[in-house]
Design goal:
The chain is an alpha+beta fold. It is built from 13 helices and 10 strands. Strands 1-2-3-4-5-6-7-8-9-10 form a 10-stranded antiparallel beta barrel. Strand 9 and strand 10 form a beta hairpin.
Length: 365
């Protein structure tokens, strides 16, 4: 299995050694204050208190060009018991009535969780899902989630764990998932466009997940595709993505060399499908770099600083991140009309870790 695999996941991370002396603990304090500000921890606490969602790790998203402003957090939901995570049964047993009454997004999500257990086609293909929340919500407010569904099953992986060993999900499962989360059927033109996205991914790529963006009041779904690096730009052209600039084609080879000079693997590419009468591919594309090793983190951050996409404070914080507090899960580069737009980091956060509880009380109260 290649050291750096590009795909959607809430697992996998890079971490450094645990803090072992006073100087390391002082470094940890500054990183916690920068990457986990008090308001973000308060938001997570309210989310855990007011909903039956419990999940670890929590994924904290940061825009690398700015300081102290987490954008979103994500929580995972799994069909079977996992340490530190709520099961579907636990979520359904607890009261979602108030949330359902407030929001169609919550109502459709709760109904979908029930269908995930009952409907054979969904249970067969959906490995897990995660919910993304706006971390800048008003105090006391639980925002509507953006659900992302991983179509990773059945997981027929080879001995090396190669993700392309898994099959392309059935399009019927994809369509039913999207329609249930949106609460309405897709138009015929949308179904045709989705089929086009499926067909052009073959024979080497596959669809790995989808998300619905109704919580952002966007009439779109997000499609995530696993592709060989050399297939990314041809695929986007084939499905109708507009390249006003060719920076994507120029930057991709450089990104590959930053990950591993001998890398010849895969990218996870995410794009939005606008669900209008004449469905179109949106103008933004995200490429994720999962499980970066320490050398990759350093090379990638230097590149992002040189491109003006990462400030020095984040550069230093992520380069020397103490693993007992946070872990780098993955990076994402966003392109708009083919031009580099921004870079984000995604950090694993484990609130229940005893070592972090002690640090949190000492450093942040």
């Amino acid at each position: 299995m290649l050291a750096n695999q590009f795909r959607v996941s809430t697992m996998g991370s890079f971490s450094t050694q645990s803090p072992s002396n006073h100087q390391d603990l002082e470094i940890t304090r500054s990183f916690v204050r920068l990457l986990l500000p008090q308001r973000l921890q308060s938001f997570i606490g309210e989310l855990w208190e007011k909903t039956p969602l419990k999940s670890e790790p929590i994924i904290c998203e940061h825009r690398l060009s700015g300081l102290g402003k987490p954008i979103d957090i994500s929580l995972g939901i799994y069909p079977k018991t996992r340490p530190g995570n709520s099961t579907i049964e636990e979520i359904q047993r607890k009261s979602y009535a108030e949330l359902s009454q407030k929001s169609a997004v919550w109502e459709h999500l709760i109904q979908f969780l029930g269908a995930w257990q009952r409907v054979t086609n969904l249970a067969r293909w959906i490995g897990y899902l995660f919910l993304e929340f706006d971390a800048n919500a008003k105090p006391g407010e639980i925002p509507e989630p953006i659900p992302f569904v991983a179509l990773d099953s059945p997981q027929n992986r080879g001995p090396d764990g190669n993700p392309l060993e898994t099959r392309m999900p059935e399009i019927a499962a994809f369509l039913e998932t999207g329609e249930r989360l949106l609460g309405r059927p897709f138009d015929g033109a949308v179904v045709d466009k989705i089929k086009e996205c499926f067909s052009h991914a073959l024979p080497h790529g596959r669809i790995v997940s989808l998300g619905t963006l109704a919580a952002r009041r966007q009439h779109t779904i997000r499609i995530i595709v696993l592709l060989y690096a050399q297939d990314v730009c041809p695929y986007l052209r084939n499905i109708g993505y507009c390249f006003h600039e060719n920076q994507l084609e120029e930057v991709l080879p450089e990104i590959v060399s930053l990950i591993n000079p001998n890398f010849s693997g895969y990218f996870t590419v995410g794009f939005d499908l606008e669900l209008d009468a004449n469905p179109q591919i949106g103008d933004r594309v995200g490429i994720e770099i999962l499980n970066p090793d320490p050398d990759c983190v350093g090379r990638l951050l230097k590149f992002l600083v040189a491109q003006g996409l990462c400030c020095q404070e984040y550069y230093q914080a992520l380069l020397d991140l103490p693993g007992t507090v946070l872990e780098v899960a993955h990076f994402k580069l966003s392109f708009q009309n083919g031009a580099v737009a921004e870079a984000k980091s995604y950090l694993n956060y484990y609130p229940s870790r005893e070592s972090f509880k002690v640090q949190r009380l000492e450093y942040l109260q």
